[in-house]
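Following the same procedure, sequence and fold were stored together, as reproduced here:

>
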Amino acid sequence: MTPAKKSQEMKASTAAAKLDVYLPATPEDFQNRMITRDELSELQRTPPQWLVDLRRDGPHPRSVIAGRLRISISGLARGGITDPLTTEQIEQLQAEPPNWLVREREIAAQVRLEERLQESREADRKAEADRRAASGKS
């Protein structure tokens, strides 16, 4: 008989990152223990009220703040945002964007455009290489 397979465990910080929540805002019993992959899956499938509230109201980690503001995490730092923000604080920034946020959104839009152009160039190069390979085989 094979022993029962033990579920993999992760630090609470890793689980919080996977759940997109700010670890210090989670309940103490979540913060102070290892979380199994099964527990994480269950939290994702059927989140408890504390997780629903935290995702809705915050405070949010930098990755979530940056995503909601449509800028990079580096852009947050350049804008002086180093602490977690609540949903209300994020909405205030969106309603009346400061100059740094407008600038960072422009930078992020330019980066996304450059990434799309690079992907397009790479696709064109691949298509050309495929055409050459196909014509060489004929």
About this structure: The CA atoms of residues 66 and 77 lie 10 Å apart.
